[in-house]
Design a protein that fits this description.
Length: 984
Amino acid sequence: MRITNTSELMLKYQKAKAKLVEYGVKQEDYPNFQLNSNDLSFSTIYIISNYVEAIIDDDSEKIELFSEQLKLVSEYYDASIKSRDRNYYNEDFLMIGISAYLLSNDFGSATVLCSMLDDCKRRCGSQYILMSIYKYILLNKPLEKSESDFEEQIISDLRKYYKCKDINIEILMQKLSHYRIDVYNKGNALDVFYVDILIAVVMSIVDNSSRRLLPKYSGISLSIWKNYLEKNTSAKVLWPAQQMMGKNGLFYGKNAIVQLPTGVGKTKSIELIIRSAFLSQRASKVIIVAPLRSLCNEITNDMIDAFGDDVKVNQFSDVLQEDYEILSDDLFESSMNEIIISTPEKLRFVLCHDDEILDSMDLFIFDEAHMFDDNVRGVSYEFLMMEIRKRLNNDNQLILLSAVLSNSNEIKEWLLGNDGIVASNSEIKSTPKSIGFSSKDKTTYYYSETPNEYDYYIPKSISVEPLTLLPRERKPRFFPELDNPTDVAIYHAIRLCKNGGVAIYVNTTRSVRSVLKKFICIEQRGYDISNIQQVTDSEESIKLQKLMKIYYGEDHEFYKCAKYGVFPHYSNLPNGIKLCIEYAIRNKLISCLVCTTTLAQGVNLPIKYLFLTSVRTSQVTMQARNFQNLIGRTARAGMYTEGSIIFTDTKLYDKKDDNKQGGNYKWSECFDLFEASNSEPCNSSILRLVGNINANYQQHLKGKNFVEYICDNYLFDNYMEKIEMEIKESATKKEIKLMNFFFSELALRKELLESLESWLIYAFIADDNFNDNYYEKARQLAVDTLAYHLATEEERKLLLSVFEIVTTKIIENLNETELKLATKTNLSVDMYVRINKWIEENELLSNAISEDDLIILICNFLYKIKDINISIEQFIEVVESWVNGKSFYYINGETNISIDILETLCNSKISYDMSFLIGNIIDVLCEKEDSDDIIEILTQLQKKIKYGVNSQSAISICEIIFNDRLISLKIVEILNDINIKKIK
């Protein structure tokens, strides 16, 4: 039997019924389905019965035929449970759904359905055993004892197998075969149905078991794996992604680039790679590098949960200073296995100051490893990877993981050559996503494979209601306004939040506040948003309200919306608030977020619905790989069996056939974003230096012309201002509108060049075999870059020219002694010279300078080199308030600077840029005599600036316990300023 178009149509109807229940549509408003999807039960029972029979009989032809159809079975029973139209059969639907998912090796979805199984009455023996097995394998619950002695023998043998006891699987299978004969002889139809599934499932879980596969893939004996496998929390089976890594040798020490979609078991894979390395004694020190502090926090917690006290897990702080020395002492002295988690920036800092730490590492794991073209960070990331590659030997292992490295083969060739592989499998899929489009006809249309025809639609999925008018208002108001994407997104969030976590995506931080203000507006006008409050834990909500009040005050939209259970999530949100919100939604204490692309940056949150108000920013469509990373955050494996991506701009659907105004183009463009094959390749930020600057189809600046200009002018001060002036003078009226774009691109290239300078300075001195031929060394470095590997022949020549002129600038401005001193600073030539001059002019080494005076001096310095859009007097006042632990609400009241500006100013310019500048000053001072006193003051000040606190105790809390400035100050107040290090 093969799946027919009729079967597929029935499945779509069943999914439509499930979606109608999600929306709460009344049955009288259901569409008139042409077929009865309930009839698909007969076909699906036939499919799974024949499949398990083929497994038992080892009939490869039938296995291949029916395995292709298991997806229909699992999705059908999943949808049947959700549609609630045959509740009497729910237990059987769950069992069949779990069975189909598990036999398809979709262990994540099987886990979700298994968590819905209640302890049920004993209907038949085989079903009881099967249910007990599912709870054990998927939920880590104990294998339950059976009332039947023979059934208990089967369960006992399985228990022994997974506890690594000496058990003969062939004897177990013989017992199951005898049990099957006995069940068949008794003739209970339900028991007969389940006993075949039971035997096939046992064969499957044994075949996929960690007990069988981990020794095989790692080359480590079962006796060594035993301690881990006996734990209740151990992985009982390996998911397809983990098996793929095992087959490719990652548990055996193979270098690899892993290209897999999000939500397929990556965290457990990292754990197993590390366990294999530790158990084989190939490694004792591991470093995991992730691009964001929040992701580092999550990985740290995951590793602590996984390894407990058996392994030391440490995370480098964000502060760019030598606070890792405590860890480095342990690294060299301790025999205990250790995992370190770091951002790329901190690891680069460590490399420049003490590369012995890197030399001591055995295993390097880079998560979200598509940072090579991330603007200025990309330059540092590329050179960091080059440095690690240089240190790799046969005993080391390097692994890069990413869901969006479409050109992973190219990167593998550059980074690993023949000493590594690309581990990927296109058949491994993330959790399915239904794609919905809102329309002004108040219907939501769902698509899957093609933009030409929808699968099903949900009528009356939007209901427009009048809002209560405020005093003096006359014009009628309604919600939602159907041509307003924000309104439609909010409406859907309120309606659907009862089914799981919801996130409203907007393209700017400013839009986050606009959405929250709309929540406040409609609530004040009498619109019922209690659905969200009902799925919000009231105690957790009160705690988050208090935190919002401390930071923003009672009048701010964050505080008001916290009462409703609606919370923001974006990059500049204070770290403590962000962590609390992530914890709350991860533990299902809250359910509604309004977010930007921060959702796409690796943090695992239980989001079921993602409402997209737009996929464009300033008329530019989001990159396909960023889009795929964003939607990959919905329906994480093991959390949901399906996610929903809903576009809330009704014009997108309603104008999909409009050829004149581009509606058809936007419609097609939208579907292109979902195609993995359309994901942009990961490029190199260094290569961007020689690329064209394209404003549109007509206006562009050729990369060749830019490089020629750089070669002629790079050694002069203000070289970039000169080219900006030339562009202004030659621009037509039409082109003037594009100048800001050109100027921003030129500013980026200036930063890229400065980052390149700092790396070349380091490379010239760090190489023990360097023979003082700077140009030869620079040329070799250029040839070794990913940029050069990806470049055309013309671009390669331009790259060599860029490296040559940068080298010229370095050797003409810094003598050999200065080069050695500059190596640890991560600074460009100009900044190194400028900081030295600033130190001399302000007599930092000869005068006793207070912390308050230093703040003023450093504020003035930073103000000159960074674009800060308030007066210097205001800036100093903000910095002083920040260091003294004042809230945004307080600083806003004192300075009248908007909270939006203060957030960006404090988190970006002060906490990051100023902290980084102080670190640079410390690095320069470290090489000077009589600098200990001023360095001590600056080191303490740097941490105060970084964390926004005013005492060592508060700093210690931020670094050791919980990184939130205002909470840390409150703890210090409660503890009466006891040094936290003493009570750790």
